[in-house]
Structures are given as structure tokens and as C-alpha cells.
């Protein structure tokens, strides 16, 4: 399932999830041997969506693998294939013909097959989870390098003239919303067509339009209307409005919530009211499913976040599934969304690479286009822990922030720095996120106080002294069940001591507007015997979760819950 609600009533759709044929290609011979047309007979069955690194025999596999399934068309049809997430390189073939390539494991892409003949069709996908120094993520990232078709595949049947996209913009004046729908209508016909386009929401019809669409062309139109007595979307008060656009044979349904998010001085305001953020960083990962995270567990994670007293979650460190973000919309939980730009060990050569920059800008565009309507998203995150002391990081920041602001002026732009005392990109962002691990990677917890004073001095020099600050990562590892008489490294007691002492420092600082603990639940990481990275990751897990990987609460969880549910 791609969304929590139906996006089409007129347009026929079906999910292609289920058992697919699967085979690894460690010698990378599938292209030369034309596996797209002659799929190997020694393949086995794999579930889609899933990660192959959760299966016997492919636990550590990095490289190419091939998937195959079939679909039928009962008549000649225009077919659109929608892929929600494939890690990381995807080459798509239909009936032996290569129809497209996509890079990026966490964003949706689609491909159209116009006037596909009646009958049975073979869909083959070559998937490659190989990463290097110019990919996002790079070959060094603090999570496991999973591979596979991790999210649903959907088949849609399009009419010759179809609704390609809808963008909902609005301006709020008290309890009235002035709404503009920007709609693109595309043609697969060989002739010019005239078509009526209409839109409605909750009983209100917006102004309709009569549109001429040239053969094989796309036309853009805007419809507008005014909604009175609206309810604003807010934390714990998730008022949502569903918009339906229709043509003669097609429709597109999406929804949004009306709310404002802005910075005023050093405060963040949601609907004009000060907002203090309490949350965690969360990977969409589980040891049994990897990144192919099932909806049932999403609901459980959301219940746990609410139980803890969170009002925000950071999607670390990649765009998360639309189903999850829909749930956040429906429950009034805020989200920081970002691309897989984890840069702790990233070189300046990577930061300066034109290919790397191009891929990052493209991923930002895909993320914002897909998730533009989600009211839960209040932050777009540009990057995480790159070396923001360097000119290369400054130039990359300019490109990334420019892309974000060109596409969306309604949200705040942020990032996470691990060099707050020397950072040179502070002035480009609305909100500053600081990642520091005093009490774990360096010094004692008391080091936070000195670091913050040095950060404020640096920010003043750059003209960024008044910007809101979020402690976007902090914490310590604690092995579930490891307890003792007093705190010591890797015990639940030590983790709880670090987190609670840090929270007291941050909550006493009026310039800090929120805390995001690292992290929600323990995650599998990429520990290899031939590499020096992440050697402190006992059990091959990042053990800084407030919960175990199976969502069992540690001592730190119970103490954080007391703090988050108390008065500040």
C-alpha cells in the first residue's frame, strides 16, 4: 500500500507487490547475458517489497540483483509504473526493452508505457545497492547498506489525456484559506484534445477550466477558491482537507492541512504560537524487515512516540515512506524530512563533486515534489554532519538551499552541524540543528554548556546569533538489559544518565527551542571486518536507541517520557 487513502477513483490502479522471481548477479553479467529477456531459470521467489539483506544467503550482499514479475492488460492501454523506493540504482525493463533508469533509494519515480498492447507483459528490474564516494548515501554511512525493492510497486492505467500532477498552495487570513490548485494535464494522444478540468474539496467546488492539450504535450492550469471557517492543522489536532481533481476519464486525489510555520526572533511559531519541540531521530528500519518497514509497525512506532510525549520526529536520514508521513499527518505529529546526506567521514572532494551536487539537488526536488502537501513536515533538511567549516560545504549549501527555497517558501530550512563552534554556513538556514555527543564521543555531559557558549559567539559573528537552535542529535549507547549498580559505558544506566543530564542543560537554555534525541530504536549498521569504521557498534548495531531494535523500552525511555511529559 502506497498511501493511507485512495488517490484515484476513476483511474484503474493495482499494486504489484507479492512474490517475484529473484537472483543475485555477483559477477555483473546479467546485462551482457541479456537477463532482461532471458531471466535465469535458477532464480528463487522473493517478496516485494523487502530487503534482500534480511534473507538467508544474502545477509551481507552488496551488488546487482534482478527481479521479475508479470502483469496483464485486457486491452491496449497507457501504463504508468510507479516505484516507491528501490535501493539504489534501478534499471527497468518491460518485455525485454529498457525503459528507464533511476538513482536514489528513498524517493518515488515512475515510467510510462504508452499504448501497450493487449496481453501478458514481463517486468524485470535490475537493482544495485552499490554505493561509492559520489552517491547519496556514500559508501560510508552509519546504517546498513540494504538492497532491494523496499516499497510498493503500483500499476496505473492512464487515459490518453491524464492528470499528471496537482500542487496545492494557500494563504491564510484568520479562518479563511485562499486556495490555488496548480494542475498539469498531459497527453499521450496523437491529436490535440479539449478537456474540462474541475476540482473540489469538502463540498466546495473550485472554478473549473476548459483546456486545450496539444498532441503529446503538457498543459498547466490553475484553479482557485476560498474556504471559510477552516480548522487549522496543529499538533494533536490533525485537521485535513481532501482535494479531488477530475477530467472526463481521470482523477487525482490528495490532501493537505492548513497551518503556518515561521521563525520570529529565536522562536519557531506554529499557527502563530510558540513551539517547543520534543522528539527523537527515527530510522525507518527493523532487523527483520530492514527498510521495507511494514504498516503495522509504523502504527506501533507512532503509538510509542505519543506515549513518550513527542511532538516531532526526525526522518533520519532519508525521505521516509508516504504511508508513514500520512500517519503523522493524521495524528498531528511533526516531521523533519531530509535526503540521505550523512557526511561524518565525507571528503572535500565529494563535497566539491559536480555529480554529487547534481544528485543531491535532484533528490531534494523529488522529496519536495512528492511530499509538498504533508502538513506534518515543517522542516526540509539540507544535509547532516558534513564538514561545514570548508568552502566546499559552503558552495554545496548554497546550491541545496537555493533548490529548496525555489520549490517551497512555506516551510523552514534546516540542517545538522557537528562543528557548531567553527561552522561557516549558519546564515543560510532558518533553524540551526546541532549534533554533539558529550558523554559519549567526547568529554563529559558538562561539555555541552561550554560548546553552546562558543556556538553562540560564532553565530553572532556570522549574523546568525538570533536563529532558533535545536539539539538535533545527542545521546549514548546502552545495551538492552545491561544494568548495574552505577552508570558505566554501554549500560542502560549510563545511557539514561547522559540523556537526562543533557536534557536538563538544553531545557534550561532559553535559546534552544527543541531536542531530538539520538535515537528512537537500535538499528543495524554497516560493520565490516576489513574497514575501520563503526568499531564501537557492539552487536553490529547502533545501540543509542531509547528502545531496543524490537521496540522494548530501556531505562532511558522511561526517564525521557517523564521529562517530555513534564512542564518545562
UniProtKB/TrEMBL annotation:
Domain Glycosyl hydrolases family 2 sugar binding: 73-159
Boundaries of every Glycoside hydrolase family 2 catalytic domain copy: 261-565
Keywords of this entry: Glycosidase, Hydrolase
Enzyme class, UniProt record, top EC level: hydrolase
E.C. numbers: 3.2.1.31
Glycoside hydrolase family 2 immunoglobulin-like beta-sandwich domain boundaries: 161-256
One GO MF term: beta-glucuronidase activity
Transmembrane segment boundaries: none
Entry annotated with the keyword DNA damage: no
InterPro entries reported in the protein's UniProt record: Beta-gal/glucu_dom_sf (IPR036156), Galactose-bd-like_sf (IPR008979), GH (IPR017853), Glyco_hydro_2 (IPR006101), Glyco_hydro_2_cat (IPR006103), Glyco_hydro_2_N (IPR006104), Ig-like_fold (IPR013783), Ig-like_GH2 (IPR006102)
Superkingdom classification of source: Bacteria
Similarity section: Belongs to the glycosyl hydrolase 2 family.
Alphabetical list of PANTHER family matching this protein: BETA-GLUCURONIDASE
Protein name: Beta-glucuronidase
Amino acid at each position: 500500500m502506497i498511501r493511507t487513502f485512495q488517490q484515484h477513483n476513476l483511474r484503474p490502479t493495482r499494486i504489484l507487490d507479492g512474490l517475484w522471481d529473484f537472483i543475485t548477479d555477483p559477477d555483473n553479467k546479467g546485462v551482457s547475458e541479456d537477463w532482461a529477456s532471458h531471466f535465469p531459470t535458477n532464480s528463487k521467489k522473493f517478496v516485494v517489497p523487502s530487503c534482500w539483506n534480511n534473507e538467508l544467503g544474502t545477509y551481507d550482499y552488496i551488488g546487482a540483483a534482478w527481479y521479475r514479475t508479470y502483469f496483464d492488460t485486457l486491452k491496449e492501454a497507457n501504463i504508468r509504473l510507479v516505484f516507491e523506493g528501490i535501493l539504489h540504482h534501478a534499471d527497468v525493463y518491460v518485455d525485454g526493452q529498457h525503459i528507464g533508469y533511476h538513482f536514489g533509494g528513498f524517493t518515488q519515480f515512475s515510467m510510462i508505457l504508452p499504448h501497450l498492447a493487449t496481453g501478458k507483459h514481463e517486468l524485470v528490474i535490475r537493482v544495485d545497492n552499490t554505493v561509492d564516494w559520489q552517491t547519496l548515501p556514500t559508501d560510508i554511512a552509519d546504517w546498513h547498506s540494504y538492497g532491494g525493492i523496499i516499497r510498493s510497486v503500483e500499476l496505473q492505467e492512464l487515459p490518453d489525456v491524464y492528470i499528471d500532477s496537482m500542487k496545492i498552495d494557500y494563504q491564510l487570513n484568520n479562518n479563511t484559506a485562499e486556495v490555488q490548485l496548480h494542475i498539469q494535464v498531459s497527453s499521450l494522444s496523437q491529436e490535440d484534445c479539449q478537456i474540462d478540468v474541475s476540482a473540489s474539496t469538502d463540498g466546495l467546488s473550485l472554478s473549473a477550466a476548459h483546456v486545450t492539450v496539444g498532441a503529446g504535450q503538457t498543459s498547466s492550469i490553475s484553479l482557485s477558491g476560498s474556504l471559510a471557517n477552516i480548522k487549522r492543522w496543529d499538533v494533536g489536532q490533525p485537521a485535513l482537507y481532501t482535494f479531488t481533481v477530475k477530467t472526463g476519464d481521470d482523477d487525482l486525489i490528495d490532501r493537505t492541512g492548513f497551518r503556518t510555520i515561521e521563525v520570529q526572533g529565536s522562536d519557531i511559531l506554529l499557527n502563530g504560537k510558540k513551539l517547543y519541540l520534543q522528539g527523537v531521530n527515527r530510522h525507518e528500519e527493523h532487523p527483520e524487515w530492514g527498510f521495507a518497514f511494514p504498516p503495522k509497525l509504523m502504527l506501533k512506532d507512532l503509538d510509542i512516540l505519543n506515549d513518550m510525549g513527542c511532538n516531532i520526529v526526525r526522518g533520519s536520514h532519508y525521505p521516509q515512506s508516504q504511508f508513514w508521513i500520512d500517519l503523522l499527518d493524521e495524528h498531528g505529529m511533526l516531521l523533519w524530512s531530509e535526503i540521505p546526506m550523512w557526511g561524518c567521514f565525507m571528503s572535500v572532494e565529494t563535497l566539491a563533486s559536480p555529480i554529487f551536487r547534481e544528485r543531491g539537488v535532484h533528490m531534494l526536488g523529488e522529496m519536495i515534489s512528492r511530499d509538498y502537501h504533508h502538513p506534518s513536515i515543517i522542516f526540509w533538511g539540507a544535509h547532516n554532519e558534513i564538514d561545514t567549516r570548508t568552502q566546499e560545504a559552503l558552495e554545496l549549501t548554497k546550491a541545496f538551499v537555493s533548490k529548496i527555497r525555489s520549490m517551497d517558501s512555506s516551510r523552514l530550512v534546516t540542517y545538522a552541524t557537528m562543528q557548531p563552534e567553527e561552522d561557516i554556513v549558519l546564515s543560510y538556514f532558518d533553524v540551526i540543528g546541532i549534533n554533539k555527543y558529550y558523554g559519549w564521543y567526547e568529554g563529559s555531559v558538562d561539555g555541552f554548556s561550554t560548546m553552546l557558549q562558543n556556538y553562540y559567539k560564532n553565530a553572532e559573528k556570522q549574523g546568525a546569533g538570533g536563529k532558533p537552535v535545536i539539539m538535533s542529535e545527542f545521546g549514548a549507547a546502552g545495551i538492552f538489559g545491561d544494568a548495574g549498580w552505577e552508570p558505566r559505558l554501554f549500560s542502560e544506566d549510563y545511557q539514561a544518565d547522559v540523556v537526562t543530564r543533557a536534557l536538563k542543560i538544553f531545557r534550561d537554555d532559553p535559546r534552544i527551542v527543541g531536542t531530538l534525541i539520538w535515537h528512537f530504536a537500535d538499528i543495524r549498521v554497516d560493520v565490516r571486518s576489513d574497514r575501520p569504521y563503526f568499531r564501537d557498534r557492539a552487536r553490529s548495531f547502533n545501540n543509542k536507541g531509547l528502545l531496543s531494535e524490537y521496540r522494548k523500552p530501556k531505562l532511558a525511555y522511561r526517564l525521557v517520557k517523564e521529562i517530555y511529559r513534564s512542564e518545562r
